[in-house]
Amino acid sequence: MAAFVLHSVNRSAQISTKQCFISHKVSRLPRIQDVHLTSFHSSTVHRWSSLPGARWLSRGIGVRFMSQGTAGRSPAGRTRRGALALAGAVAAVAGFVANACHFQRAEMASRVIQVAEQEDDILEKCKGFMSLPVTDIQVLQEKKGEMCTRMEMLIMETQAEFCRALEKVDGGKFKADRWQRKEGGGGISCVIQDSNVFEKAGVNVSVVFGHLTEEAAKQMKSRGKVLKGKDGKLPFCAMGISSVIHPKNPHVPTVHFNYRYFEIEEDDGSKQWWFGGGTDLTPTYLNKEDAFLFHNTLKEACDKHNPQYYPDFKKWCDRYFYIRHRGETRGIGGIFFDDLDTPSQEEAFGFIKSCTSTVVPCYIPLVYKHRNDAFTDEEKRWQQLRRGRYVEFNLVYDRGVKFGLATPGSRIESILMSLPLTAKWEYSHEPAEGTKEAEILEALRSPREWL
Predict the structure, then answer these.
(1) 124 alpha-carbon distance from chain centroid
(2) Cα within 13 Å of Cα(166), Cβ side
(3) Which of 256, 295, 305, 370 is catalytic?
(4) How many structural domains comprise the chain?
(5) Active site residue 102
(6) Partners of 201 in the beta sheet?
(7) What CA–CA distance (Å, rounded) separates 439 from 431?
(8) Under DSSP, is residue 13 helix (H, G, I), strand (E, B) or coil?
(9) What is the span of the domain harbouring residue 30?
(10) Same domain for 98 and 235?
(11) Does a structural domain hold residue 343?
(12) In terms of domains, do 353 and 436 share one?
């Protein structure tokens, strides 16, 4: 229904409504035979007429909506102009369908207004992001009902919300680094390094597409995916958000979360899709109150959808984030799941939205609680040793890192963003019995229930 044209912007520039316009083509309005009789709601009219600075301009066979500034205009003047604009739009639509059936006019006008509101909603959301979305806004508008678009908007929103919360507690600012993948897609890496509270913190969004490599296809098949490509090719689209936070203070835990969507088109045009992800906590020292808050927040989100999700995904998390060559888990867990394609796409997406809504409340309170805790050199040394374990898991076992390294054109800096700025490996180190270091190590060697 519409196309947005944006002026060129800097990599981390904010979107301004003065930099865009919507071009509504009459030829792309709903077909007459697709229109059904409904009522024309006055509340919808009011919402449209009250849009600030809106006016309709005739351009040949099309109608163009342009956003103008409101400086120097009175509210009453804007309302009158909005009402006149609406009247002109409805009249144009009514004339288009008058010869078919006069009862269809109200529905046509209502559809135009609803679509304009939806597209305006996409633009409004984009203005609050850390950067422009990876996908062109015109494409997002044209495919706003498809899951790829909805998921990209969700991960962009989550990135912005989490970065703003981290900036508030730290006092520093994230650097938004846009990158492109010549094979298709790209991403936005937001990183803060050697700041006040965080030694290194990254919140990455990636949206990539193309064809699965043979190695990547083998990884999919090893997970039970029966994939039928055309001429040996499997078109795919993958997107997700991934974040790892490494604080300076050893009493502030490290957190990781990742939520992703994968879609593959098979030779007959059908699509396989699934969601995956999770959130887990890696403390340097054990704090049972922190563990309860973290796990309980995740459980409440899971319980909204299925009471079995939390216990199942908590066990899955303990199994997945396991450093086999060390015989210990990476942290005290959380939730983890993959290949989620039930009970329906809509319900699975709803669950992902609930999960992303937990990333701030399950972690930020812990940062505020411990960011000013006193610590010793020995406690800092133990933090460095535990970070070494974190590195070992990510480089040896992490599925996302493996997939990224096996995908042509992947950005290495973004893949290895999860690694800490500093870490330590000491030969054959073992904490003394009865110490706080031994306490957390015991919890990692024997995963427990925290609720």
Answers:
(1) 16
(2) 31
(3) 256
(4) 2
(5) no
(6) 192, 245
(7) 9
(8) coil
(9) 17-126
(10) no
(11) yes
(12) yes
